[in-house]
Amino acid sequence: MVNPATVLQLRILQRQYFQLVEPHQLRWLDENTLKTPDVQTWLFTEMFDVEKIKSPPPDRYQLRVLKLLISKLERAIDDPEEDEISDNLMSAMSSLLVSSVPSEADSAQQKAFVTYAFPRQLTDDTIADDRTVTLLEARSVISSSGTTGLRTWEAALLLGSYLASTDGQASIRGKRVFELGAGTGMLSILCAKHLDIAGIVATDGDEAVVDTVKTNFFLNGLDTDDSSGCIVRTASLKWGRPVDTTTFTEDYGMEAPNFVLGADVTYDKFVIPRLVTTLRDFFELNPALEVLISATIRNEQTFQTFLDACERNSFSLGQVEFPPVPEYHQVGPFYPTATPIQIWRITRHQTSGDPFAF
Hints:
Elements: H1 4-18, H2 31-34, H3 37-48, H4 59-76, H5 87-98, H6 104-109, E1 111-118, E2 131-138, H7 154-164, H8 166-172, E3 176-180, H9 186-194, E4 199-204, H10 207-219, E5 231-236, H11 245-252, E6 259-263, H12 272-285, E7 290-296, H13 300-312, E8 315-319, E9 341-348
Parallel strand pairs: 3-4, 3-6, 4-5, 6-7
Antiparallel strand pairs: 1-2, 7-9, 8-9
GO molecular function, one term: S-adenosylmethionine-dependent methyltransferase activity
Protein name: Methyltransferase-domain-containing protein
Pfam family, one: Methyltransf_16
């Protein structure tokens, strides 16, 4: 039996593995702990048992991780008569070695299962089930169609972590939510699957990306038949096109939202006017609307352009106090923090008749 403290460490390693964190960045346990029979059994059962794992990482990634694990175990074993490497782990690696594992270049172009975990906040060593979202993602940065929407970016992971926190969940529970630039749909799925919202419309301007969101909804047991009590919709939305009360319910099958989400939607200064126009339309639908925008600040001037446009349109702005966790302290999800990531809350001044301004 593996003790609870060790299981907590193993769970972090497991979350990294299913999120496809680079093998050299995995947070391995010390080698003396790794070589114990109970820990080896746990690793096989929870990470490498192909009969049990529903959405496994790609074969090449599994093989890279297993090779690294076996090498650590070999170094840790001083007396082969007392310690040995699990037959199950060795068999798993052997099966992958003799299979037709694609090349690194080919593997990068293929869609793969990626699972993001949002652990519950615990006050002790109690192990709670993770809130997970499993997606099919393209691991290449930009797809052949030129869109960046086929993988999940760090701004979405930080915003998801905030929404899954005690404060974030309290603010979104029971709300009708609309996501702009949904990409893989990770945030929408997290909200619909785990955060007790009333409904979600996940939108993107790229039809191919919207199709990907539909696939990912299905992977997570979400569909549009409303049987779960949470309305789930996907739609194509080009920013800047009119959004009005008359057509909203007809187009999206849900009343006007009281929460709008957007992650990494401010990276291009040329689309900011259209984005702010769309936000203004949503405030016209519901003046009490709350907007959360999460942004990786790659270019401070570009992001300032967004903030300035919001202020000129009578939006109230406030940065959410939820800074990224340093990488060596992250327990899931895992994301780089070298570039600043910020979450901003946007509401509207209670004024009327203010003209568009950019």
